[in-house]
């Protein structure tokens, strides 16, 4: 068994096809323990810390921070027996012996990680990426293909370890990297232009010719900033890359436009919303409700000694109303599965959360079995974890019904689009003081508007109306609804 084992970017159970390396938590030469976090990766849904699968010494890091890596691509290598002495110089035979994690053992078809229809891999939810190797379009003027095998691990100790080699735009024989060009001159025709793969991809997306740029990175390499400046029409000479945690201001070009690459959470949200909007026939109904009694009930609840350390908001009662209404109308908690409708007894209640990375919808598993106090604690933990960017992929999979609280933005209601795999989503609008006829007189009452979107293949107008009416009845008089329904 080889001492050096390479760790590929795994499918984290959400059909992931690529991930962006946000931050390395180790460096070449560091000793790591089993399950120690090694790298933070941003998937299409969240930032996830990936732990080491083996203990040992990090011998190589194949991709720099900011690189977008396909699932299955090795991202680092570990010497699992560093006490055995220095590693020998790599040879063709030793490279072929380097082990990659997925090849450790076969998995039976149908099991997670095993083969599935269409050449894909079975994951926790749905199917992951195809198992075949990624195919790349051949570059013009490419030389002889590189020898087969995985990248050679880099020898460990170094004062300032380089985490990823800068790759030339044009493959050529191995030659010393050119020194940075003086005077801000662009590369001459046919000259080597140094840029990392994600930088090349960004340049391609923005229509920037790398040969016209002067790199500001190490050894004259071209950085993301160089590409963005060129795209904005401001790249006239190499400038030092900016550092720090501050967010750069929008860079507008002469046409007063900015082009922002679509990736990560925004890309996944766009794909899901487009697929849902053109797959499930949406119907949206609205209901305006006097929620004064619910607001008073929350005030009384906050005063109780056992609830004083609990975060209580109107969304808590909305969630409880939805769970009770599902119990009265189970078909709302179902999914269209082609030749059948799958009705689910459990409710994995999704709560849409706006984060710095975009909109995500983590869900509370089997929320219908929780008490009101347990539901409040689960919602608080869910929102805090989401805003910290630490939501686990498993917590964003398997949702059955969702609530989106648009009221926090001062909006009365909306026509939400169904998350894929769900048949209903409720929009909860802002609670406002409004004139309302109460007991035959016009009074100032606390009022909100609910918007329910549902899949009309499963939920007809009668069922959707009854469900929405029950949610409204609970919010209008929660004590009476609890006594009458439970």
Walk me through what this model shows.
The chain has 486 residues and is of the alpha+beta class. The protein is built from nine helices and 23 strands. It has helices spanning 92-97, 197-206, 224-231, 264-277, 292-303, 314-328, 372-387, 461-476, 478-485; strands at residues 4-8, 18-24, 31-32, 37-42, 47-51, 56-61, 68-70, 74-79, 99-100, 115-116, 120-122, 127-130, 282-290, 334-336, 341-343, 349-351, 353-355, 358-360, 363-364, 401-404, 424-428, 432-438, 441-455. Strands 13, 16, 19, 20, 21, 22 and 23 form a seven-stranded mixed β-sheet that branches. It has a five-stranded mixed β-sheet with strand order 3-6-8-1-9, with no helix packed on it. The chain has a four-stranded antiparallel β-sheet with strand order 5-4-2-7, with no helix packed on it. α2 (197-206) packs parallel to α3 and α6 (314-328) packs across α8. The longest helix has 16 residues, at 372-387.
Count of alpha and pi helical runs = 9
Task: Outline the biggest β-sheet.
Answer: 7 strands, mixed
Count of DSSP E strands?
23
Residue share in helix: 10-25%
Evaluate the radius of gyration: 28 Å
End-to-end Cα distance, whole Å, is 62 Å
How large a portion of the residues is in β-strands, by DSSP E? 15-25%
Class by SSE composition? alpha+beta
The coarse silhouette is elongated
Q: Write down the oligomeric state.
A: single chain
Low-confidence stretches: 102-186, 234-248
Mean pLDDT: 75
């Amino acid at each position: 068994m080889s001492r050096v084992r390479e760790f590929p970017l795994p499918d984290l159970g959400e059909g992931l096809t690529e991930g962006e390396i946000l931050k390395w938590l180790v460096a070449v030469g560091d000793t790591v323990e089993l399950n120690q976090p090694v790298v933070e990766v941003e998937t299409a849904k969240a930032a996830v810390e990936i732990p080491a699968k083996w203990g040992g010494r990090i011998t190589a890091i194949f991709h720099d921070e900011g690189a977008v890596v396909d699932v299955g691509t090795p991202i680092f290598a570990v010497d699992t027996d560093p006490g055995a002495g220095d590693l020998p110089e790599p040879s063709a035979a030793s490279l072929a012996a380097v082990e990659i994690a997925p090849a450790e053992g076969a998995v039976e078809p149908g099991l997670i990680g095993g083969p599935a229809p269409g050449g894909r891999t079975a994951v926790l939810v749905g199917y992951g990426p195809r198992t075949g190797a990624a195919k790349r379009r051949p570059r013009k003027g490419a030389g002889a293909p590189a020898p087969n095998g995985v990248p050679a691990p880099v020898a460990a100790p170094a004062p300032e370890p380089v985490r990823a080699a800068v790759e030339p735009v044009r493959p050529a024989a191995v030659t010393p990297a050119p020194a940075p060009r003086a005077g801000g001159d662009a590369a001459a025709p046919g000259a080597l232009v140094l840029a990392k793969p994600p930088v090349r991809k960004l340049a391609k997306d923005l229509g920037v010719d790398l040969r016209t740029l002067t790199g500001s990175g190490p050894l004259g390499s071209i950085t993301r900033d160089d590409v963005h400046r060129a795209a904005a029409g401001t790249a006239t000479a190499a400038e030092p890359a900016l550092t720090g945690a501050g967010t750069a201001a929008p860079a507008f070009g002469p046409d007063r436009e900015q082009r922002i690459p679509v990736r990560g959470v925004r890309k996944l949200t766009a794909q899901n919303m487009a697929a849902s909007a053109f797959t499930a026939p949406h119907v949206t109904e609205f209901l305006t409700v006097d929620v004064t009694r619910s607001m008073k009930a929350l005030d009384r609840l906050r005063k109780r000694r056992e609830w004083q350390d609990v975060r209580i908001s109107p969304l808590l009662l909305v969630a409880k109303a939805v769970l009770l209404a599902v119990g009265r109308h189970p078909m709302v908690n179902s999914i269209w599965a082609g030749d059948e409708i799958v009705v689910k007894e459990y409710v994995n209640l999704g709560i849409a959360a706006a984060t710095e990375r975009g909109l995500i919808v983590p869900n509370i598993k089997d929320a219908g079995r929780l008490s009101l106090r347990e539901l409040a604690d689960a919602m608080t933990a869910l929102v805090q974890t989401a805003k910290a960017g630490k939501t686990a992929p498993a917590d964003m999979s398997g949702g059955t019904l969702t609530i989106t609280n648009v009221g926090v933005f001062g909006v009365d209601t909306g026509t939400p689009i169904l998350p894929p795999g769900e048949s209903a989503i409720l929009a909860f609008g802002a609670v406002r003081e409004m004139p309302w006829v109460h007991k035959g007189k016009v009074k100032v009452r606390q009022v909100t508007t609910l918007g329910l979107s549902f899949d009309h293949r499963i939920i007809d107008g009668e069922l959707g109306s009854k469900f929405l009416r029950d949610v409204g009845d609970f919010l209008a008089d929660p004590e009476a609804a609890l006594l009458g329904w439970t």
